[in-house]
Predict the structure.
Amino acid sequence: MTDRTRVLPPFAILVAISAIGPLSLNIFIPSMPGLQDEFGIPYGKAQLTLTLFLIGMAVCQLIYGPISDRVGRRPMLLGGMAVFVLASVLAALAPSIEVLIGARLLQALGGAAGIVLARAMVRDVFDRDKSASVISYITMAFVVAPMVAPVLGGFIEVIAGWRYDFWLLAVLGAAVLAAAWLRLPETLVRREGAPNAVGLVAGAMHLAGIARFRSYTLTLAFTSAVFFAFLGGAPHIMVDVLHRTPMEYGLWFVLISSGYMLGNFLSGRFTQRVGIDRMMLMGCGVTTLGGLLCLTAAALGFLSPPTLFVPMAFAALGNGLTIPNGTAGAISVDARLTGAAAGWAGFVQMACGAAASQLVGTLQEDFPFSVFWCMSAASILALAIHLGALRRKRLARS
């Protein structure tokens, strides 16, 4: 631990603020085929409740990260959580798909605060390798929420309807907001001057010029695209192609969350011993294996819940090895721009995920296997980018 702060943020609150965004993303996914029927809309439009959520999270990370470097982590976090609670109430009351899409966008803008600022708070307190380990443990803990979210969402969809998803999120968001208000300290000791557009753009340009930041961020982006492509296509395949229930989708999804949790546990346990780059290499390799297994099973005509979810569990294991280490690497390239780096890395990661999800959602009614091609292509790109970065690193040392 460094001496950058005198007070450590409570681990449980870091987990909670990190979990609220992924929870709100995953709890609603089993309801998307039913949402299409309720509003009488094509699947591509229903998919916007996911895609614009991801875009909102992506864009808002550009705001939270750089500005928090100047005004502090705590005020930005509290403001974001307040927006999340209000947006959840609006979504629960939405009279039309347009209002629901808008509420989901606002919900994402609020939920992004926890994802960005929890990472920045960890980096405020710990050094590079230790921060990767701590981020891994936080991710392993908060992934319990997204793990149970599809099961809970499928149950709520069957019993009460999708609106109760948002009432639950509003209550949970209010509880997290209250806990953060009462217990979460400010972790940023050194602050820059008042935020301005020139400074934010200059910080972005500086980060974009660092090869290590580009490689870490792009590896994160394409690794995440594997997961978000799956989220965009799996509900349609389970409900409309395989004729399974939203509840079954949620139960099978536990395999994926378990794989991701295991990957984060291994990252937390071994990163300081093995190193960030080697952990990422192993993670990218496992994710590629999972993506190719999904594609192979579908191409050979063996499409079923086990052949859909078991290979994706391998891909999720790889994500658990790659994402916390890639995040720690990206936000450590310049200590003066930790929040900005967290924001830009998160933006690229979510934007790539949103593009993959919407592409799959648009194509899948005419081309159901688009999800598997997209997953495979993204996993191969992530592995190739990281291998290229390692090669450049070796050449620089020689």
Q: What stands out?
A: Residues 208 and 214 are 6 Å apart (CA to CA).
